[in-house]
Amino acid sequence: MCAAVYLLSAATGYALISVLLLKFPTLLHRRKREQFLGRHISHRGGAGENLENTMAAFKHAVDLGTDMLELDCHLTSDEQVVVSHDANLERISGVRAYISDMCYADLPPYLCKLGVTFQRKCFCEGGEDKRIPLLRDVFEAFPNTPVNIDIKVNNDTLIKKVSELVVKYNREHLTVWGNSSNHIVQKCYKENPDIPVLFSVRRVLMLLGLFYSGLLPFVPLKEQFLEIPMPSIMTNLLNDPDNMTRSRRVILWLADTLLMRRALFNHLTARGIQVYVWVLNDEKEFVRAFDLGATGVMTDYPTKLRDFLENIGSFK
Asked: Please, which domain of life does this record's source organism belong to (predicted)?
């Protein structure tokens, strides 16, 4: 009887302290310093309004007033850091070759028309700018715009060169980098711990485990940005969502229920960790993300997100 009472008292005490620290995490952790606030984030520069990852797309988004550009990096055979989502050029340029096998000067231009990855049956037709840019071009053109860099491959030279460019252009305070791979994120952090890193998939799963066990308020976190999908939008990407199997629907519902938690988002933002939800292209998705407490939204349609934020009085 005494043992049961002791265990019950200990469990109750643990639960109360966990709930208290979940709501007021700065009682235990020093709030991370936020160098910038990203509410409006342009995915690949705004892949629904200009050809993805082009200077034209980035300029359009910056002119609109985007808070952050999201882009992807690869390394050419002559060790130039280029901005491209795909390692293989076939989808974006119609050439069956890998960026890593070609010199920068030999890279083909983008196709005139590209599909928008996160919008079913939508395409973007670009203007005159079809060049695959260098990362340094982006840094030079937009010296004061925060940039979110996805290191697309596990390549030590790529990670080192991206870090060198960030340092050269004095952008440690305006850059966040990482990948879904925990191995790549660890390498990024080791290469330059002054550049904030994203949560990898492995660390997101750890984060959820800590959250649902009540341990999260007690654990220090090195990451400064949580960048996660809104699982419910995945049905929008299927050619025939009505024929989705029951098991897939259950998996999507479960993932959405576990990830999209207001208490989790509020706890992280209270610790100075920004929460970005991707890739949202519809107003009802914008509403849900911000209602849940997300810091920012990543979109293919920066004009649509700007108009939404202006309407609710949250755009700079």
From this structure: Eukaryota
